[in-house]
Design brief:
heterodimer; A: 486 residues; mainly alpha; two-stranded antiparallel ribbon; globular; B: 130 residues; Helix Hairpins
Chain lengths: 486, 130
């Protein structure tokens, strides 16, 4: 199956749904069908790439440095599969009965277009088309933010748009300078040519790219667009975004990490940025009372772990960064879906107004427990393996201060999960003036599915880590510049 | 040609950054447009031959010919930036319709003070649009 169809199918579905405007239920069924097809494809190419094959599709048969090519290696395949799975869970959660007919009808075409942009970004072998794909994802996300239509979502969309547009400007400027010194934007080609480029311009180009990607990945000084917008997004869409949108920045950083080997300053900058994000993000999270804002500050902290491991620039470090990214996507999406149920059953986004009142909450509490333990890194779950790998990589590179910051952050992670637990699950129902609208039926399908994904991911941690390790070897093998594994 | 380009990038960028930091939303949008013009010029400059060199000369020689690829990049980037600017104007129109001031406002902190019914309507997608 041609790789281009991977990009075209969701795009075509998105436009079809937009022009056709069917009833929400039909629109949802169509999208679910497409997403199942995408999952099948994603697993197929993951299996193919597992044998070390690199799938290439050249547009118009122009050979790679001249034309645009889609290139899928292990790293791309992993992220494509991750997104396909999360998309399915999101579509299951986004029901007209719970989130409104209008919301679903407006959101589905946009989600499909965002999907095609994400797939394009994970497949492209060219930095400029990476930019175009990222913009495609961002445009759909800008529109998705405004769907709830309340005053607050209109107001809080502005910082996200302005900050992300500025980051995009930096991205283009970086690409301009990079093209000027390398004469190409094909990633493999740039990796070959950048060695001979003048130092100052190289630092400027890569520095601008790193700043742009760090903004999209929401690292500490550049992260504030995320906690401002995610609380007002339609909740299942927020779950998808929390899972995959910040990972787009991480993915771009992973792709350019062989280039960064030429500028060790940027690598150690990334490492410190990651370590401080991990600590400051979780401290900010601990001080929040709004559930989804707490969770999004949490993402800042967890992305910090990923970027710390990436900044170590060893094969093992890169592998643990990819593994942690996968773990965090699954867990954070699950937590957002749980948050959605909690918010709607309590008629509030604020933890202080939540209590444990709803039949079926036992299921919800169990799922929250699994996800929270996984996030905190309690042994049999995936977070433990992720953190172990990141810490191990840090030990190997003897980054003691950074490691200490991560360990402290890890303790606070557990504390912030306990905070949610105490407010949302441990309190007896409080007296209220108005009784919130009861929700007639409880469909924990999406929540259970997300929890099942975490459990499967934890059980299969060994094979998945091997795959991820090979992916890390593959991307660093192109440059041959990364130091050996320990 | 390069000094002229550099000077225009400098001017556009300073004006753009100044405007983005203003409080009025219209100025922010225009500022973003100026910033994107500045980076487009940077991208254009990576073609090396200056902005007036053609991509093709009669006779087909490559001497004095500009690299066409950055020009294609810039065209794409201009289209994207234009779409973003239009989108921002549309977002401003939505804000104006809902009776908001056209200014950058601090994001409301929490909906602790809001009525549960309103929050519930918002969470279930039942907000009536202006």
């Amino acid at each position: 199956m041609s790789l281009a169809l991977f990009f075209l199918l969701p795009l075509a579905t998105g436009f079809l749904l937009f022009l056709w405007q069917p009833a929400a239920a039909l629109s949802r069924r169509t999208s679910l069908f497409v997403s199942i097809v995408l999952i099948g494809w994603a697993f197929a190419i993951t299996a193919k790439c597992g044998d070390g094959e690199i799938l290439v599709h050249t547009f118009g048969n122009w050979p790679p440095p001249f034309g645009i090519a889609f290139v899928v290696d292990r790293l791309g395949a992993i992220f494509i599969t991750l997104h396909a799975l999360l998309l399915f869970v999101t579509l299951v959660a986004l029901r007209p009965e719970t989130h409104g007919e209008h919301t679903v009808r407006r959101a589905l075409p946009l989600l499909m277009v965002a999907t095609s942009g994400l797939f394009g970004a994970f497949m492209t072998g060219d930095l400029f088309s990476l930019f175009v794909m990222v913009e495609l994802v961002l445009v759909s996300s800008y529109l998705l933010i405004q769907i709830p239509g309340a005053k607050r979502s209109l107001v809080s969309a502005m910082p996200m748009i302005v900050i992300n547009m500025s980051a995009s400007a930096l991205f283009i400027a970086g690409l301009g300078v990079l093209y000027g010194i390398c004469g190409s934007l094909n990633i493999a080609d740039v990796i070959e040519r950048i060695g001979g480029a003048p130092h100052g311009l190289r630092l400027a180009a890569l520095g601008m790219l790193v700043a742009a990607f760090a903004t999209k990945a929401a690292l500490v000084p550049l992260c504030f667009w995320m906690p401002a917008t995610y609380p007002t997004l339609t909740a299942p869409v927020a779950a998808l975004f929390a899972g995959i949108m910040t990972k787009l920045g991480v993915y771009a950083l992973l792709r350019i990490s062989p280039l960064l080997g030429h500028e060790p300053v940027l690598l150690s900058f990334l490492m410190w940025l990651g370590a401080f994000s991990a600590l400051l993000g979780v401290l900010a999270a601990l001080s929040q009372y709004e559930l989804r804002r707490l969770l999004s500050f949490h993402s800042v902290s967890q992305v910090g772990y990923i970027v710390f491991a990436l900044g170590l620039h060893t094969v093992f470090g890169t592998a643990s960064a990819i593994f942690f990214a996968l773990h965090h996507s699954l867990v954070k999406s699950t937590l957002y879906l749980v948050a959605d149920e909690l918010e709607r059953s309590n008629s509030s986004r604020d933890l202080r107004q939540m209590d444990f009142r709803r039949p079926g909450s036992i299921v919800l509490a169990t799922v929250f427990g699994v996800a929270a333990f996984a996030l905190a890194g309690i042994p049999p779950l995936s977070g433990f393996f992720g953190k172990l790998a990141v810490f191990w990589a840090g030990f190997g590179s003897r980054e003691w201060i950074g490691l200490a910051l991560l360990v402290v952050a890890s303790v606070f992670t557990l504390a912030s999960m306990l905070k949610i637990w105490r407010f949302a699950f441990q309190r007896r129902p409080v007296e209220r003036e108005t009784v919130p609208t009861p929700i007639s039926t409880f469909y924990p399908a999406a929540v259970l599915m997300a929890a099942a994904l975490i459990v499967v991911f934890s059980l299969a941690a060994g094979p998945i880590f091997n795959y991820v390790f090979e992916a890390a070897e593959q991307i660093s093998g192109i440059s041959g510049l990364m130091s050996g594994d320990r | 040609m390069v000094p002229v380009l550099a000077a225009s990038v400098f001017l556009l960028l300073t004006a753009g950054v100044y405007l983005v930091l203003q409080k009025t939303l219209l100025r922010v949008v225009i500022g973003l447009a100026l910033v994107s013009h500045a980076v487009h010029l940077i991208l254009l400059a990576s073609g090396r031959q200056g902005v007036v060199a053609p991509v093709l000369l009669p006779g087909g020689g490559i001497e004095g010919v500009a690299d066409p690829l950055p020009q294609a990049f810039v065209l794409t980037a201009i289209v994207i930036a234009m779409a973003m600017t239009i989108y921002l104007f549309a977002a401003m129109a939505a804000l104006a319709k809902s009776g908001e001031r056209m200014e950058v406002e601090p994001v409301p902190d929490s909906d602790e003070a809001h009525a549960p019914e309103a929050v519930q309507a918002e969470l279930e997608g039942r907000v009536t649009r202006p």
